[in-house]
Amino acid sequence: MNGVQALSAINNRPTAVVIADQLRESIINGAFTSGDQINEARVATQLNVSRGPVREALHRLVQEGLLISRPNRGVFVREITEHDIAEVYEAREVIECAAAEIITKRADDARATVADELETYLGGMQHAIAANDWTGLSRIDLDFHTKLVEAGGNTRLLRAYQTLATEALICMNHLSDSYPQPDRVIPGHEEIIANLRSGDMTAVHLTLHQHLTLDSYELHTHDDDGSLRHGRNEEDVHAGV
């Protein structure tokens, strides 16, 4: 079952938000794939709603960057390019580092609380890896990173990250090069947790940079002197400076 047929009737909840959520989920799961046209009338018929809320839902997803509106042609699922993947991961790094900066400035007990909360996701990751459930693993992975951003307490950072997380899920589920090897997943997240717990922002930044850098996609910004964002230097961190 693909495309419009994967949508379910929403009965007494004909809101644009609910429709957008269903369409977003269908794009993430691959029921709609890159380049597919989403027909407003067919969606309205499938969901048993008027076309107005569907039009609003499509507009929401266009604003999120998941759909593209082409004049006189319709609305289409955006095709994810290698450059798009690189941009998503680079933007994730910036937002996660900003949230981590807030967390690492807190007292020891506050940092420990965040670290303990993040550790609760590791069991689910291990279970998903053992079950070869890569779709489930990608969702738990994004939940972990979203929780990290949420723990920063900046609602605007979180709002921006939630949109990126949707695009990241699409990358993870449909573009294998954008997801790390299974044996790197747990250790990578454990290192992020340990560095947040210790409050070492320089180490957190380097760990996040390595965790979110995709070797196949060259976009992550480094200056010629090897420095990363926020004035931190990758070579100095490796040298223990």
From TrEMBL:
<dbReference type="InterPro" id="IPR036388">
    <property type="entry name" value="WH-like_DNA-bd_sf"/>
</dbReference>
<dbReference type="Pfam" id="PF07729">
    <property type="entry name" value="FCD"/>
</dbReference>
<dbReference type="InterPro" id="IPR011711">
    <property type="entry name" value="GntR_C"/>
</dbReference>
<protein>
    <submittedName>
        <fullName>GntR family transcriptional regulator</fullName>
    </submittedName>
</protein>
<dbReference type="Pfam" id="PF00392">
    <property type="entry name" value="GntR"/>
</dbReference>
<keyword id="KW-0805">Transcription regulation</keyword>
<keyword id="KW-0238">DNA-binding</keyword>
<keyword id="KW-0804">Transcription</keyword>
<dbReference type="InterPro" id="IPR000524">
    <property type="entry name" value="Tscrpt_reg_HTH_GntR"/>
</dbReference>
<dbReference type="InterPro" id="IPR008920">
    <property type="entry name" value="TF_FadR/GntR_C"/>
</dbReference>
<dbReference type="InterPro" id="IPR036390">
    <property type="entry name" value="WH_DNA-bd_sf"/>
</dbReference>
<feature type="domain" description="HTH gntR-type">
    <location>
        <begin position="13"/>
        <end position="80"/>
    </location>
</feature>
